[in-house]
Design a protein that fits this description.
This protein has about 400 residues and is α+β, with helices and mostly antiparallel strands. The protein has 14 helices and 20 strands. It has helices spanning about 5-15, 35-50, 100-110, 125-130, 140, 175-180, 215-225, 240-245, 260-275, 285-295, 315-320, 345-355, 370, 385-395; strands at about 20, 25-30, 55, 70-75, 85, 90-95, 115, 150-155, 160-165, 190-195, 200, 205-210, 230-235, 250-260, 280, 300-305, 325-330, 335-340, 360-365, 380. Strands 15-12-14-13-17-18-16-19-20 form a nine-stranded antiparallel sheet, with helices on both faces. A five-stranded antiparallel sheet has the order 5-6-10-8-9. A hairpin with a 4-residue loop joins strand 5 and strand 6 (about 90-95). Helix 1 (about 5-15) runs antiparallel to helix 2 (about 35-50). The longest helix is centred in the C-terminal third of the chain and has 15 residues, at about 385-395.
Length: about 400
């Protein structure tokens, strides 16, 4: 930075009350812009100084991605909060990036809408989109990018850009909103988003089945996921089922949530009960599963997320379980969450499964000694091509490497 005092420049531009000591990040100081203009000024100053910054919303996704490297500043988006516009007729909302999912859900629910971004919680909208965090209702709600109509993103030049908007039809050319969603803040900082809401379903029913030995749990889970009203169909190991309050009488429990019109939900319930003994449970158990997919693990533990074809889930689950993993399998969308209380064979097992199934995997939690020097996204058959694509994007959007250095695919 050649003697240029970035902190002093930011204090002059934003005021000293917007800077503080960094907590929980390897940074010299923290800066919290209060609006889009201040965010643009912050990024312009950081970019001109070629200073490096870790971007953070509410910190709930800090463990995802590659380990942080030492940076000059922690850039917090918590000051960018609030709902700017809510159209209760069309079911669209414009919300600032630092707003929590819980706050947004509380605002839209009384109007007959729900937020299709997983279980409401303390995570910020911007952090959820930047990390493309997936909840247990991925089957029915789709990935986070599906509800994004448009984004306001600030680049390291200080340029405030907008892609998309409140309606799908005004998206022309490249759909950059899909590019930013899941980029871990490595290309630009999300300032605000236009999101598409989902109507609250008329009826929701949650059932759990303890699958008997001799049956094929994976086939039952896939068939359940194909029912018209299914929005969660998760196969759980006994230990995970009991952790979220389900009393399992066998090694595998199938948790299914149906949502939709009353007749359609009841028809799917009848189908499930005809296939296996499925008892009703409280609806909040699905939200509890969301917590189980993100829970902290003991020191030395590991968690991986493997994406593959639904038809490959059975063999992958068998191999991962043999390595000592406890599993949550969303077979309908080809996602397997595996966790180990001791990392042990986790890396080798995940790499082997991803290679054999021609899938992709990422480590969401790893002990520091295993994470150091490792690309947690770099597990899969086309890793080299994906890294080269990310490198070209990083060079185009953030050539000085200001934003979240080392955190995204390729440790770029």
């Amino acid at each position: 930075m050649s003697g240029f005092d970035v902190r002093a420049a930011l204090e002059r531009e934003l005021g000293p009350d917007r800077l503080s000591e960094a907590v929980g990040a390897p940074a010299a100081f923290a800066v919290q812009p209060g609006d889009g203009g201040a965010l643009a000024s912050t990024l312009r100053i950081l970019g001109e100084a070629r200073a490096r910054a870790q971007v953070r919303g509410r910190g709930t996704h800090d463990e995802l991605g590659n380990g942080p490297v030492e940076v000059d500043a922690l850039l917090s988006t918590r000051g960018l909060c609030g709902i700017e516009e809510l159209d209760t007729q069309d079911g669209v909302v414009r919300v600032r990036a630092g707003t929590s999912l819980a706050e947004l859900a509380e605002a839209v629910t009384p109007h007959g809408w729900e937020l299709p971004l997983g279980a409401p919680g303390s995570a910020s909208v911007g952090g959820t989109l930047a990390s493309a965090a997936i909840g247990p209702r991925r089957l029915g709600q789709g990935p986070p990018r599906d509800c994004v109509l448009g984004l306001d993103v600030v680049l390291t030049t200080g340029e405030q850009t907008r892609c998309g908007g409140r309606v799908v039809k005004n998206v022309t050319g490249f759909d950059l909103a899909k590019l930013y969603t899941g980029s871990f803040g490595a290309l630009g900082v999300i300032e605000a988003a236009w999101l598409r809401l989902s109507p609250l379903p008329e009826t929701v029913a949650v059932r759990v089945a303890s699958l008997a030995a001799g049956s094929d749990p994976m086939d039952t889970a896939i068939d359940a996921a194909r029912r018209p009203t299914a929005r969660c169909a998760a196969l759980l190991d006994r230990s995970i089922a009991e952790r979220i309050g389900i009393s399992a009488t066998s090694d595998a429990a199938l948790l299914v949530e149906f949502a939709g019109s009353e007749p359609a939900v009841r028809e799917d319930e009848r189908w499930l009960c005809g296939r296996c003994a499925a008892a009703p449970v409280a609806g909040d158990v699905v939200d509890a599963l969301a917590g189980a997919q993100r829970r902290a693990l003991p020191d030395g533990g590991a968690r991986a997320r493997v994406g593959l074809l639904p038809s490959a889930c059975g063999r992958a689950a068998q191999a991962l379980r043999a390595s000592g993993a406890h599993l949550i399998v969303h077979a309908g969308v080809g996602l397997v969450y595996a966790e180990w209380s001791e990392a042990g064979e986790s890396v080798a097992a995940v790499e082997q499964v991803a290679a054999q199934a021609h899938g992709e995997a990422r480590f969401e939690l790893l002990p520091a000694d295993l994470k150091r020097g490792r690309d947690v996204f770099g597990v899969g058959t086309d890793t080299r091509a994906r890294v080269e694509l990310m490198r070209s994007l990083k060079q185009r959007f953030d050539p000085a490497g200001v934003l979240n250095p080392g955190r995204c695919l390729g440790r770029l």
